[in-house]
Amino acid sequence: YELTQTPSVSVSPGQTATITCSGDKLTDKYVCWYQQRPGQSPVLVIFQDRKRPSGIPERLSGSNSGNTATLTITATQAMDEATYYCQAWDGSSVFFGGGTKLTVL
Amino acid sequence: QVQLQESGPGLVRPSQTLSLNCSFSGDSVSDSKYYWSWIRQPAGKGLESIGLVYPTGSITYNPSLRSRVTISLDTSNNQLSLRLNSVTAADTAVYYCVRGSPGDYGDYSFYFDYWGQGTPVTVSS
Description:
heterodimer, A: mainly beta, 10 strands, B: mainly beta, seven-stranded mixed beta sheet, globular
């Protein structure tokens, strides 16, 4: 199973960033999103398609429909600059997308 | 607060065996409801799952590594271990010990909520 992400996305501060993750019938799976800043371990920001762990701001939201899962960051801030990875489980293995580097210009 | 700490040699010779341990601590970490995993990341690249320990105790491995990898979990001593045989330069990466928690829909909805700081491993002669 394969998850495909756009390698990079740029956004201006205060604008909305949209990061997508594509996979065959992805809507049949639950998708998680992880944020990784340079030199740090990944941090869970979305699980079960759209749930936020405690401490994750409401500006980050997730959805999953058809073949595409989406991480949306509204009112983007400089602190959101990071690489974001989607992840799913296909019934036997864990898969990660290749990551999307979000640049806040 | 849950803490995971990886340990092991930072340098492994080609064709040798890479062995890493992860010590975990915190509230209820030994609870049998959790998932445990090793995930690695080559420098400048993405995340790759090595294997997953389910709450039942069963273990699955990345098909591309299955012939060379063994993961074991010792909940009585709060340790997760990794052994990777016959390493090559392609196994050079940061290796993460990770805990997963169950979601609302069984195995299909678990998520990785705690990550260790990662330990870098270089395969070189």
